[in-house]
Amino acid sequence: MPPVFLEHPSSLEHETGPHPERPARMVAIERELTSRGWLGFERMRSPVIERSALEAVHPEAYVEAIRRVSLAGGGHLDPDTVVSEGSFDAALHAAGGAVRLVELVLDGEADFAFSAHRPPGHHALPQRAMGFCLFNSVAVAARYALGRCGLDRVMILDWDVHHGNGTNDIFHASDQVLFVSIHQSPLYPGTGRASDVGSGDGRGFTVNVPVPPGSGDPLYESLVQHVVVPLGRSFEPQLVLISAGYDAHRDDVLAGCEVTEAGFAAMARAMRRLCSSLGAPLGAVLEGGYALGALARSVAATMEAFVGPPALADEDGAVGVAPLAREARERLSEYWGALG
Ligand SMILES: [Zn+2]
After folding, report:
1. In 3D, which of 160, 205, 198, 142 has the Cα closest to residue 178?
2. Is residue 117 annotated as a catalytic residue, yes or no?
3. What is the pTM of this model?
4. Do 101 and 113 contact (CB within 8 A), yes or no?
């Protein structure tokens, strides 16, 4: 089955003015992938999300409020989060792409899928837009997989440099979604402390791994290999979604991390190996990433890692256990014995 790249021209109609989260991001990705023959991916237009699937995360009144603001010409929902006339439709397609991705990989119609739209989603709370995000596409997709597709266990790895506070909160009390976020701290939105492990039945199923500014490929790769992958082996997800933001890149000015294309590729290969060992389908949903060239090359590096030649089996463990990875394992061993 060919891998699929989900997109929609409405992503260009979400107009944000002078803003880092801008239509040129999509243009840069398209240009890079065109120059590389789309890496063998089949391009597919994302449908609009079904209202019932969207409202499984966002209450109807909130969806209607976003629709009204957008159709009235838009405005600022907060100092960072802008809506234009085209934004509501763009956000419906962004969530629709993430849901279509779930259907494609679960039905075996695609070995892997990448859903690339604007606006991003991981900061959006059920009733509040924030951090450039209107609807939480990855959360809507995960809930669709659990509800409509009948899955019991979904894992979300969020490697955007900002904490995915929306996804964190939406599944805070759930033991059906293992949410793992690696993010710079301190940084917007200020949430995602290591001590936030979820609540109720969901204790231990929210995993926050804050990293300091300056963190680069070695630390990110170590955290994925020695924390994220062992968590996945213990949880045994039936589906893995990556909230794939690229603002941890060293060229990105919205944060201070130093990840490169090679680092994103290594993390993607590690997740591919995890999924193939579990027989779990894998997909990625675009979040942030504001340095156009770095964003485009990193998206391509991720896609290439998923469809390129399989990595050597002994690549697992090739990166040493960083002190922060050791600390995270010790902390998490209370909930996940295998990490002790
Ligand atoms: Zn971000």
Report:
1. 205
2. no
3. 0.98
4. yes
